[in-house]
Design a protein that fits this description.
By secondary structure, this protein is mainly α. It contains eight helices and no strands. The chain starts with 7 loop residues before the first helix and ends with a helix.
C-alpha cells in the first residue's frame, strides 16, 4: 500500500507539536513545584510528575513523526512560554486554581476528543503510534485537572473556589475559542486525505469538537462541583 506523501502542512504541524508537547512538560513541571510549595498530597504530586514524563515522550514521538515526514529544522521553542506566570500580589493557591482550570480541566479535557478525532483517519505508522500514545495519556491528564479541583475543594479555599473559577472562565473560554474555534492550531480548511492520514484535521472540525465538549464534559463536570460555566461560555 503506497504511503501518503507528507506536505509542508504536515511537517509544520508535527514540528509545532514537538514544541507544544515540550512546553506542556515544562508547564506541568512548574505546576508540580507549586504543588510541593503548598504541601499538596504526595499522590497528587506523583501524578503531576508522571504527566511531565508523558509530555516529554509525546514530544519525542512527535519528533519521530516530523522526521518521517521529511522534516529537519529544530522546533521553535519560546522560552517565555516554558514557565507559568506568577501573580505575586496574590496567594500561590490562586495561581494553582487558575492553572488547574485552564491547562488541565479545560485544555486536557478537550484534548481527549480532539486527539481521538485526529487518530480516526490517521494511517501513517509513526503518526498513528504518536496519536495512540497521546490519546491514551490524555485521559489521565484530563482526570488530573478535575482531581486538582477536587483537592482544592478540601483546602481553606473551598468556600470561594466556585467564585474563583467562575470569574476566570470567560477569559479562559475566549482563549479556547481562539485556539480551537477560530484558527485552530495551524491547520486551515480544506484539508487533503493525505494530510488526514498524517493525523491532521481542518479548523472547522476543531471548533465542532470544542462545542460538543462543552455540553458533554465541561457543563456536567463543572456543575457537579458547584460551578456554573454556562454564563462564561455564552459570553465568550
Amino acid at each position: 500500500m503506497p504511503v501518503a506523501p507528507a506536505s509542508d502542512r504536515v511537517r509544520a504541524e508535527w514540528r509545532a507539536r514537538i514544541a507544544a508537547e515540550y512546553g506542556s512538560a515544562a508547564i506541568t513541571q512548574h505546576l508540580v513545584l507549586w504543588l510541593i510549595q503548598v504541601g499538596a498530597p504526595p499522590d497528587v504530586i506523583d501524578d503531576g510528575l508522571r504527566i511531565v514524563k508523558d509530555e516529554l515522550e509525546h514530544s519525542r514521538l512527535s519528533h519521530e513523526t516530523y522526521v518521517a515526514a521529511g522534516g529537519g529544522a529544530p522546533p521553535a521553542l519560546d522560552r517565555n512560554t516554558l514557565a507559568l506566570p506568577r501573580r505575586n500580589d496574590l496567594p500561590l493557591e490562586l495561581d494553582i486554581v487558575r492553572t488547574a482550570t485552564q491547562v488541565f480541566a479545560l485544555g486536557e479535557t478537550v484534548a481527549v476528543p480532539l486527539f481521538k478525532h485526529l487518530r480516526e483517519q490517521c494511517t501513517i505508522a509513526p503518526a498513528r503510534a504518536a496519536l495512540d500514545r497521546i490519546l491514551r495519556d490524555e485521559v489521565r491528564h484530563r482526570d488530573f485537572g478535575w482531581t486538582l479541583l477536587d483537592w482544592l475543594a478540601t483546602t481553606p479555599l473551598a468556600p470561594q473556589l466556585a467564585k474563583l473559577v467562575e470569574q476566570d472562565l470567560p477569559a479562559m473560554f475566549t482563549q479556547l475559542e481562539h485556539n480551537y474555534g477560530e484558527a485552530g492550531p495551524g491547520v486551515a480548511s480544506p484539508i487533503s486525505a493525505d494530510d488526514r492520514a498524517w493525523g491532521l484535521a481542518p479548523a472547522a472540525e476543531y471548533a465542532e469538537i470544542l462545542a460538543r465538549t462543552f455540553e458533554r464534559d465541561y457543563l456536567p463536570r463543572f456543575s457537579a462541583r458547584g460551578i456554573d460555566p454556562a454564563p462564561a461560555w455564552a459570553a465568550r
